[in-house]
Amino acid sequence: xxxxxxxxxxxxxxxxxxxxxxxxxxxxxxxxxxxxxxxxxxxxxxxxxxxxxxxxxxxxxxxxxxxxxxxxxxxxxxxxxxxxxxxxxxxxxxxxxxxxxxxxxxxxxxxxxxxxxxxxxxxxxxxxxxxxxxxxxxxxxxxxxxxxxxxxxxxxxxxxxxxxxxxxxxxxxxxxxxxxxxxxxxxxxxxxxxxxxxxxxxxxxxxxxxxxxxxxxxxxxxxxxxxxxxxxxxxxxxxxxxxxxxxxxxxxxxxxxxxxxxxxxxxxxxxxxxxxxxxxxxxxxxxxxxxxxxxxxxxxxxxxxxxxxxxxxxxxxxxxxxxxx
Length: 325
Prior knowledge:
By secondary structure, this protein is α+β, with helices and mostly antiparallel strands. The protein is built from nine helices and 16 strands. Strands 8, 9, 12, 13, 14, 15 and 16 form a seven-stranded antiparallel sheet that branches. The protein starts with a helix and ends in a 7-residue tail after the last helix.
């Protein structure tokens, strides 16, 4: 585990923004800066930005390196379960991928009734709703309880700064942004990946609670997984050994994901509307520790951060095409 002192010392050495204009056309997401080349590749630069409540809240030391390395690990681990877009990892913060056309629906899979935001399944359930994204839920569920079986709760893929909207298959198709064939192919991949992820996480003492997958289509029309898989940004993880006792006593499970940051804001009464306020340094360090712990528990390897200034290092590793503009 990386020492707190090293994390604190690198609070000012985070990757917040990039501008490698010579590399290709840029698309900036909440966390990732994407550059599309003329020869059909995409370089995904994973920044240290942290996003929750559908907005960027600040930066976390080494978060981008953790996410990038973990996504690459999962892509390689699950290549036999579902095809993906990975070509290589030329830098600790960068994935090199096949350029794909995104399918405009996120495939969200949930195995537990939980969450704290206004759009979470628990918030809806607590208010009395018994149908969520087309799934009828049984009465008598408690917060953080396991569902009878995992369910698919897809969402629209909202532009940066806007909220994703969850819905049933029929509601997502009604937007006209995704075809039934693409939706069903992506949904089948998502359920296979979630089952594989649950199994791998269970072997490492973790519960894969829920996750989201993004899919795209290659030039030849093949549906593949893009972006990331089973990282602390896209997934919710709980410590398995303490879950039963905590659930029985009504306590929240131990998180290993960005729920740590969400809980900081929800305890202050923030639910996603208005100005969330700055992210305190102690929360930034605490979040970094949890990201790193998740990486080490899942992969079984030690995380060693690269402390070089990231902007120049990435430009060097990507070559002359990534000259800083």
